[in-house]
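Fold sample X.
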Amino acid sequence: MNVSQVDISSLLILKNLLEEKHVSNTALAMNISQSSVSRALQKMRTLFDDELLVRTNSGYELTTKADSIKQDINLIINSLETLVHKQSFDPSSIETTVRFFGLQPQINTLMPPVIAQIRQRAPNMIVSLDTTPQRHFEALIAGDVHFALSSHEPASGDQNLYRALVSKRDFRLLMSKSHPLANEVLTAENLLSCSFGQISLQGEKTLSFEHKFMELGLVDKKNRLSIPVQLSNFHAAPDIAATSDIVFHLPTPYAQRACQDTRLIAREVPPELRLAFQHVYLYWHKRFHDDPMCIWVRGIFKDLFDVEHTSA
């Protein structure tokens, strides 16, 4: 491969194609024509001597080679963006995209004021939010996003992540106003008879507070809580709770927002079942630690949420 043959604009298109796996979506996202995307793909196929994307019954899929170069392309583009930003970073005129990953409770609670600040100070910046349930640090490590908002801890062996504490959260029990316990004093004992909804984002098999029932000797491995509904995301939880006897154990801001639906009520968790406050962190990768745009965005979080400290 002759490096002089590398076309940066085609490389940018390929980066988006490998993420979208869709020609028209890539064209729409980049505000270019589909024919431009197709021409760039053909150039990159010649350059890499590989099909890169192959058509299947369900759309395009990455070849093995495309999958292997995806992260490298992200690193190259990110390095180029960093180089440009170092030379001239002016929030009022910068035209770039800052990408976040986070689940709905964190995104819904933390991002609106951040976006408001960005819109005011960097009107040409695009904010991309990914709330698709996935391993929390996968996109961050791959270079697909600049930041991740998460209460999870990364693997102890990963030394390339930094974080800043931005929030603490507790939980509420979301249920229908017609639920038998809606107006009762809640205790661990009377909650034993409830049917709960499990939101399993990463394959969790138990409710986040079931171990509290175990500590009280109310359930064990043979006698478990009733969990007849299992979801892979938060979207359907409010409607399910509103129209059934299912109770969800949810982060307080999300549960309270769901109660804009007048059919719902958010009850405090009994003291004996409460979890310790969970920390929500803003994470970023070492590759973006000195990036001026990312430093500026972290400054917004610091101003809004009184960020405490960062650590690798």
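Fold sample Y, listed below.
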Amino acid sequence: MSQLSEFCRSLSSIAAKRNIRYLVVAKGGKDWAAQVIDAFAPLYPNPLFCGEPLSAGMDAIPFKKAKLWLGRECQMLTFNGHNGLDAQALGALSGTVVGGGILLLLLPPEWFANSDSNFNNRFSQLLQHPEVVVLEPNSSLPALPTPDLGEVDSVVATEAGLPFGTLTACQASAVEAIRRVVTGHRKRPLVLTADRGRGKSASLGLAAASLLTERNIKIVVTAPSFAACQTVFRHAADQFGVSYSNQKFLELGKGSLTFIAPDVLLSEMPSADLVMVDEAAAIPAPVLHTLLSRFGRLVFSSTVHGYEGTGRGFAVKFRQQLDKVMPQWRAFEMTQPIRWADNDPLEKWIFNALLLDAETASSGLNPNTAQFECLDKGQLLGSHNLLSSLFGLLINAHYQTSPADLVNLLDDDSLHIWVCRNGDNVLACCLIVDEGGFSPELAAQIQRGQRRPRGHLLAQSVAAHLGISEAAEQRSGRILRIAVHPEFQQRGIGQQLLSSVRLWSQQRYDFLGTSFGYVTELLHFWQRAGYQPIRLGLQKDASSGYPSLLCVQPISELSQQWFAKARILFAIGLTTNACEAFREMATEEFLPLLVESLSLQVMPAPLPSEWVEHQLSIYSQGGLGYELVLPALQQYLYHRLTHVGPSAEQATLLLAVAKVIQRKTWQDIVQQFQLTGRKQAEQVLRDFVCADLKKNSIARSE
């Protein structure tokens, strides 16, 4: 046996005895990487390879599909970084490695040299940790990690006498807490939180099985996707000895276990004796709040430090809501790992490298002495405490903060970071990204919906949704995130931070803007800072559960020229769509925007004719969309019918009147005019506008 094979066998033995996992780095070319893989392969019969395969025919998971493997397990994860590292995939798949296994990271030698990537430089520094095993060709093998013989009790094994099929005392207590939601008083929901590998979803399944054994009960499980909660069903089925093949409905014991998607659960309101909400942090807050009002027995579970976001922000904000509506709610946090032992080297390293466990600063904060400044990327790279404090604040403020955001903070030159801080302790932060500055040709293509340059949401939205192409030509700054430490909110710090950003932006941008899930308090916050709404999204945002509201603050005279037009288009679009696109919107949310629109005093004055023809011209070429161009369509049709009257194109004119004036549903339009679907119906409408514009013109007839 070669020295390399013997070393790998010894390392595997140590990991197995301690029930821990190691990070192993194969630093060298692809031939060396293949040798290291071959040395470990006989020791781990259940491997997983992620990234570009080393050879043809090798089974490998692309980085982009890493998420599909969540919930599965492997003994050896090989992660190929020869063509670049994907932090999101690394964070996702590291949790699939079970105790006794390894994460084998393949990196070329040149990757360790100073590069243009701050993230890579920081990452390579962290690889020098004593518990990271680095293997290089033509170099001596490193010393084996020394086992701590005092940690034998850290090995997870089934403890004698534990109920419900649980593996640890912590898991048994979690199952008991879940059961009390059913056996105890109503209106006392449970919030169950845990890091990955603690058996949170398994605990839901074990609790469901125990309840189904004892009573006739209907348990409903909901989650962002069925894949996110399959572990619940698998563990419940195992307790009854039932084979499981991804069924969404199981009849077990005296009752049933059913998966129902969150939107269907709210729309159909099925009867349920218990509702389990798995990965609750990834479900929009309005959905969670509605569940609270409609079901009496609820369990909300969430991952605290996750690969694609965190439940920390969820835990803080949702608990505040629970305190208001159900003050007798309970919380349980699972801390003991099940897939691996406590103090697992790989978990500690991944958490540190990707800052998954970053927290807000807990001391050294004083608003009276804090400084407002735009950070340099080098400052973040040079201070772990500053980076961790900043990232912890972002995690606390938004559950979707992820490893990809960490990469952007360190490497994206178009991203600017404003902070309010006391030394390394961050009180508040604001992230701004450069957008726009496109050529007139590209701006025109964006306006027509033909091009969508990645990462330019603000510039694209004004051009493509309002038909104002000059906004895409101008330089803009989009505020991605703004966050204030939870202990210092409502003190004006956020407003001071935005004022600093405004002054800094004067020589940089033509306008500033932001897009957020619309709630009235957020609108008021942005309006106090000088931002005004110019577009309300037609659909609810997938993450927030609210329609997105786009707000802009003009800076240069160039942006002032189109801003007034954008405000009028917003006002008329909102009122025109009130009974159609915004019909389902809560009235208390719609009312402030309606009042805002009416305050512009543009109703019922019509749009200028040149605006109408400009928008309809874009629409006829495939840009905008029905809802976006509806005000112009409506005005054009009224004018056309008044001044031109019916014409030979009677059928298409009838379709236009039925939809635009009578506001019939697309389904009714399709059926009435014998079309194949909405897509064809809207194309008929576009073709009608295109042909009619060539014959008739508001501007020419006035």
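Sample Y note: Residues 292 and 298 are 8 Å apart (CA to CA).
Also: The longest helix spans residues 557-576.
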